[in-house]
Write a structure and sequence with these properties.
Strands 1, 2, 3, 4 and 5 form a five-stranded antiparallel beta sheet that branches. This protein has no helices and five strands. The protein has 113 residues and is an all-beta fold.
């Protein structure tokens, strides 16, 4: 299993400049996730096999593209401004994901009715 993401988030400060006061922050976020030969041992609930564990191998990938807007505030603290307090108050987010992750087993796996 593995994944990576990237976020581009410029901040526009409405107060005294960088790092001080309220800001709006439009952003773009990309995410990629992949599964390569991950095995999960499924515990069967079928009474015929009495709780036997069935290995299922998962493979696949998914990607996501998102955009949004955050409203928050930031303050530089400490004698040397080396501490930061950042608060997100509200935001808007829109995006979607595509991909397929499949699981395969050497045995038939059924659901209980």
């Amino acid at each position: 299993m593995g994944g990576s993401n990237f976020t581009l988030e410029p901040r526009i400060y409405l107060g005294r400049g960088y790092g001080h006061g309220f800001y709006i922050a439009p952003y773009y976020r990309y995410f990629h996730f992949n599964v390569d030969n991950l095995t999960y041992n499924y515990k069967s609930e079928d009474p015929a096999v009495s709780g036997e564990k069935i290995p299922i191998a998962f493979n696949g990938k998914a990607t996501s593209n998102n955009v949004g807007l955050m409203i928050g505030a930031q303050w530089l603290l400490g004698r040397k401004d080396n501490w930061i307090l950042d608060v997100w108050f509200i935001g808007w987010h829109y995006g979607g994901a595509t991909g397929t992750i499949t699981g395969k087993s050497g045995r038939v796996v059924t659901t209980s009715a």
